[in-house]
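Thread: Newbie trying to understand structure tokens

Hi all, I'm a second-year student working on a class project, and my supervisor (Dr. K.) asked me to get a predicted structure for one chain before our next meeting. I've only ever worked with sequences, so writing a 3D structure as a token string is new to me. If someone could post the tokens and maybe explain what I'm looking at, I'd be very grateful. Here's the chain:
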Amino acid sequence: MLDSMFHSREDNVMSRRPYQADGVGLPDDFASILRDLYKRQDPGLPAVTLAARNAGWTLDVLGSAMGVTRVRAGQIAAKAADGSNADPGVEIPVPPAREKPKRRPRAVGLTEEESEGLRALRQAMFDADLDTFPTARDALVAEVAAHSARGVRVDSLGEALGLRSGAIRSYLADFRSKQAAEKYAKRRR
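---
Reply by user tm_fold:
Sure, no problem. This is what the structure looks like when written as tokens:
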């Protein structure tokens, strides 16, 4: 019974990072060198760890190879960062290049017809009575969200509607929360 309560670090799924399963990891031979240096408490470990960190490896990856946390891996590397540029004595592999993050598309402007349509929806919302106001507001908010998703900037939407950008952000937040509530309600059925 006690054996089932205690698991090795490898069995504990919570100790693994999501990207380690199929993501970038240290080459096996270098990982075994790091693990061996750590087990022997070799004085060259800080220099090797710092060199690997300077080569581009993250503390998470280095720490998992040694069987320690990223904080401990940083502490080990900091021992060598005192200004001495000791040769690590081991060839440090270079991590593969990461993909560059996708850039947001350039801001899209509103045409005059789109601006007129938004103003008409806003006026319809103001002209609505208590029974039709929620529907009119939802139509305006959905239209604002559609333009925002298309890449129209919040300040451009505010200018077209005669509102401050904070009011537009409020509309967008309402739209997202309503979508989340509808999605949650569908899952509950």
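A couple of things are worth pointing out once you decode it. The two ends are 40 Å apart (CA to CA). The longest helix spans residues 165-188. Feel free to ask follow-ups in this thread.
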